[in-house]
Amino acid sequence: METLSATTIFWLLVLGATTGWIVGYIIGHEGITLISNVIWGTLGAPLVGICGLYVQISGVLVFSLLGTLAMLFLANVFHLHHVEDITGDIKRGIRIIKKS
Description:
By secondary structure, the protein is mostly helical. It has 4 helices and no strands. The longest helix has 22 residues, at 6-27. 25% of the residues are buried.
C-alpha cells in the first residue's frame, strides 16, 4: 500500500509537469499555452494522486496520470477565447483594393 510521503509528492509533481508539457506540445496553439498546461498538470497530478491515496486506490501514479489528462482536456476545451476569435478582427496582412 502506498503512503503519502515526500517521494510520492515529488513523483506526482514530475508526472504532472511532464504530462502538461507533452499535452501542451501536442496541442500547440489550439488550446491554452504550453506554460498553462504545465501549471495545470503540476497542480492536477498531486491533487488527483492525493485523492487516490485517500480512497486507497492501488497504482496512484496511473490514476494520477489519467486524472491529469482529464483535467488538461477540460482546461484546453473550455479555455477563454481571444477577443480576435470572438469578434473576427483578425488581420491577416492581405489587403484588397478596389479600383474604380
